[in-house]
Amino acid sequence: MGQGKQDRRGKGRSAASKVAMYTVMLTMISGAAAPYAQAASSSRAAQVVEVTGNVTYKKSGGSKSNYVYQDLKLNQGDYISVGPSSSLTLKIVDHGDELTIGENSEVYISELLDSGNGKTSKVKSWAGTLWSKVKSLVSSEDEFEVETPTAVMGVRGTHFLTYYNPQTGETTLVVAAGVVGATTASSTSGSSSGGPGSGSKSQEVKVYPSQQLNLDQSTKSTDLKSKVDYADPNKIVIVAPPKVLEALIKNAADIQAELKEQKDKLNKDLQQGKTKPDEQSTLKFQDDTDLNKIKGNFDALLPNLAKQAVDGKKIDTSVIDKANASIPDPNQKIDLNHVTPIDKSAGLDPEIQKIKEQAGEYFNQLLHELVELQQNQQQLASLVRQLEADKQRTDEQNKEAIKAADQKASEQYASSLDAAAKKEFETNKQKNETSGINPAAQPTAPTTPSSSSSSSNNNSTNTTPPVTAPDPVQLVSPSAAGEYDLGTIKITAKAPADTKILLMNGTETVAYAQGNGDQPVELSLPDKSYTGLTLVSEKNGVRGSAVSVPALSNKAPQAVLSEVSRSATSVKYRLELSNVPALYAVQAHMTYDAGALNYAPAGTSSDLPDAPNTVFDGSNIAETLRQVQGQTKNELIYAATFFEASTSNPTSNIRLSGSKTAVEFTLDVVNTVTPGTGNASAQLVSIKVADKTGNVVFQLPTSP
Questions:
Q1: pLDDT exceeds 80 at position 69
Q2: E strands of 531-632, at which residues?
Q3: CA–CA separation, 145 vs 699, rounded Å?
Q4: HSE on the CB side for 75, CA within 13 Å?
Q5: pTM of this prediction exceeds 0.70
Q6: In this structure, are strands 211-215 and 228-230 parallel, antiparallel, or unpaired?
């Protein structure tokens, strides 16, 4: 394959291709393995502190759902589903961070690692509400990050809430204490490091206590500051489940302690002449008056949320009492009878306010244009209905006129015939009406004169021959229902050269071809399933009887792991994919007995060498194969993806028709085993195939 593929596996591969693989795989594999850990990293755990209702989890790479229970330890790559009226609280074992996951939520633990230099904790929220209580990160290399499909939020010691609505694609972030740096998910995926949260400072906004950030799929990274506002307690309480609100309020003492540190820092900033907490913040203060309003909002969020939650019957006042019991300062206790509203105008940066106003004007303009468009569409629809009514009325009038003219012509013609010819004419006319065939032309005289006319008149009088339908189409293939590779569904049929072959789906013509006598003609069809098709012949506007066509469909996408060869020291396997309509990335998981088989790459890297004539073949492609060792079973993870480098042409999905090899690999035999006995052979546990947008187009979970 030449030079192109070798070049892509060279020096630049770890920077470019792994960016693409990381991004696509995280989007695609919700229940699969986590991003690749470096060899020196060690895994960490999150322990279940509290669970209520129906909460399940899937282990990394597995397809089986298991119920969550008290003290269960979850790890990197595990996928959590929280059902209705349910909740889950987790604690990171070696750091004390807490996560409270509300009802109807889906959370994926994407990273829980300790590299030696720092600890990384990353979760991805696919749906629902998540409350995070993060202790101060000790090392500059420590990371704590929450990601949704539209936003990435990195923190350094904070209390914050995130809510992701999968139906609208909107992410809501509310900060109670600390600072959260947020970027759009799209701005991080193209960064040089490839990891979430690595967007540039110009693409990041810092969200401070009592502030709220709303992002959706249309948000551009340059618009982030215009998306930050002061929190709306009423809306927050509406979307946040009771358990999440309880978790927030019960941590009131810790939140107030962290807020005090932040307010003290802002006081020092002002004394040193600073007017902003940092360049990525939307807050600005010129004097003590401005700063006091900002600090007042810091303190106001918690009481406002508590009052809204109690008024909305989301929580009981006993939750407030317990929280107040842990607050030592009487002046800081939550008093539901004296709640100061959040000042929406406090500390607004005039430049950012101007951007918001411009965005509001632009939105109003779009709204005005949308209203005009809807009005125009309504007027157009009314006009179309009027035209359709006029056309129907005209068609009916024309039909009546044609019918009257035909009747008059028929009567005039019949009156010119003798008795025998008239009887034959009426018989033919009745046959045509019964068969539904309407002759297009005026009846012509018959070629054979009747006996009565020949004896009484020297001029022969002719009658109309019956109009006959063409012979049916001869179906050559298929002779029976069948499944076809992508792009190969076709029908072969025969008909005379003067006859058209119509392929019908009910009353709709889906394909047609001109007959070619004894030579078959082909009618190709798009990829989909077909039932109830018929072939109909047509000649001079007259159609013959229909011929049924067997049901046709495409073969379903498949993934097959097969044993190619076996010796006393090794076993070679081949993973094949077939009939995938849109393929951009793949991740497959295979398992085998750890005491029988082992995968040892040729070098220290998990990158695969060049393999011509495989699914992933060409430039801008990355493929890895790595083994995760277990006590009883080893897991082999194959991951491959196309990617776009800054200097390369855009890459697209490929359409895989028929079967093609994705990867071949060899396992070393640790102990002598018999083929096909138990776990002595490798088994395909699961595979997911995604298109370029990250949509899973094919997945195959099997029982290990």
A1: yes
A2: 533-539, 542-543, 547-548, 552-554, 558-566, 570-583, 585-593, 597-598, 621-628
A3: 28
A4: 11
A5: no
A6: antiparallel
